[in-house]
């Protein structure tokens, strides 16, 4: 039982240090021309939405704007960060599967 607890504790520490280390790294990759154009289009659309008069919109239109903004945010993150996301839970599942096999 102690051995299992030590292994679990070491995995938690390993995963937390990997996330902290990757968060401190700066992404200095240069974007391609098409990515820069797409990013500029997204930022200009966000500015248009920000400058809108939203008081005259109904509930469905406001909801559509929110979903559009969320989608644009995810697209911008994918463009600037490379688009590969891996959660801590997914890492834990992968490690457990590797230990079982």
Uncertain residue ranges:
none
Could you say which overall geometry the principal axes of the C-alpha atoms support?
Answer: elongated
Biggest sheet character? none
In N-to-C order, the SSE pattern is: HHHH
Spatial extent as radius of gyration = 21 Å
Mean pLDDT: 78
Walkthrough of the structure:
This protein has helices at residues 2-24, 33-51, 59-81, 88-100. With 101 residues, it is mainly alpha-helical. The protein starts with a helix and ends with a helix. Helix 2 packs antiparallel against helix 3. It is built from 4 helices and no strands. The protein is 77% helix and 0% strand. The chain has a domain at 32-101.
Short key terms for the protein model shown above:
single chain, 101 residues, mainly alpha, 77% helix
Write a compact overview of the structure shown.
Helix content is about 75%, strand content about 0%. It is built from four helices and no strands.
